[in-house]
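TA notes. Do not distribute before section.
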Amino acid sequence: MKILLAFCLFGSTMLFSQLENCNLEKSEFIDVRAVDKNDILCIAKNSGKPNTVFYTLASWCKPCIEHLPDALKLENDFNTQVYIVLVESEDNMKVKLAMSIVKKRSELANMLVLKNTVYGDAVKKRNKIFAKQITPPNFETIPDFSKFIVVNNQGEVKMVTNWKDYRKLDNKNKEGVQEMLSHTVIPLLK
């Protein structure tokens, strides 16, 4: 029990210092740090892990909620840290619902919210701007939700998934999230 408590204390200290190195401030509306693209890159650079995974979630997005356990599981199964990025506006009541959905899955989940000052209020517009900013030119920019974003410790975005990644190479058969992760995200985390 003492070892578990020490591990949790060490982990929370590392997370706190990592966020402090990036000068992240809490949202004025909710108890979550508000971020933009540059903040996300800074978090990854300071994570102490080879890669950091950021997973986008909206409270009304069924795939986001369905894939949330798979996103959280990555942190336990691989040498990575996972952050859930809430895409609804900081002052929207739905963001509190999104927070409760995440907390039901894991009390210890790391959550961030996109900054209103950078991304505005409308959820689809916010997500579209964020997807365009975070997606490297060698990937197709698709402003869907339930994205897995992998950023290495140099601050380079290595993967941004989209709905097309859930199709096998023959483009006919739909894959489950585990299969999609096994050929997109997981190779980057090994």
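Switch to the second chain here.
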Amino acid sequence: MNPTINLLKSHRSIRKFKDQQIPRQLLEALIQAGQSAATSNHVQAYSIIHVVNPANRQRIAELAGGQPYVANSSDFLVFCADMKRSTDAAERAGAEVVRGMTEQLLVASIDAALMAQNVLIAAESAGLGGCYIGGIRNNPQDVSDLLKLPDNVYPVFGLCLGYPDQNPEVKPRLPLAAILKQDYYDDAEDQALVARFDDTMARYYSQRTGSNKSTNWSEQLKPLFTSKLRPHMKAFLNKRGFGLK
């Protein structure tokens, strides 16, 4: 192990923050670290909205399902998949651009995710903590309107950042054998591995500081697959100019 690997393996979601502001110079350094992430064909198909206005942050907290840390973290960033800037640039260079390709949606979403993970890792290396907010996709049109996002740009997720005011345990991950497969996809052992992991997660949840509950990994998954999760996203993305072709 080395310090970088140890840092990556120690990740926790932080939802309670000290009343301490991240220095602007440090915040900008984190964003620059994010820009160094891999990006498909150097497109850099992302934009980040730094939401500073308290009323807007409170509104996003409500739109995201009532998540107060959106409003009370030091800084809140919305990572957007952005195909507008690059397609506009190609068009100005003389290309007859084709918009709305599904691959453009994938490229922009992946670029935004890779960039954000770099930002969070850099933040954790500086003693900060963070929490991703996928809940902004509960009401993506309202969030887009609030942030004045143009067509060919959509909000993928938010990220709360700040100085941690809690020290939660590291949440266990699936056994390596369940996700690392050699040469081809072989799930012969997956049922047994998942059963073992359910026992691990049941112990974790029963012993977790401050929020004990009786459940396991498989039980936690049930709501994700027994209802239509955010069924509005397809129409929303089509309206934004993504995933039409």
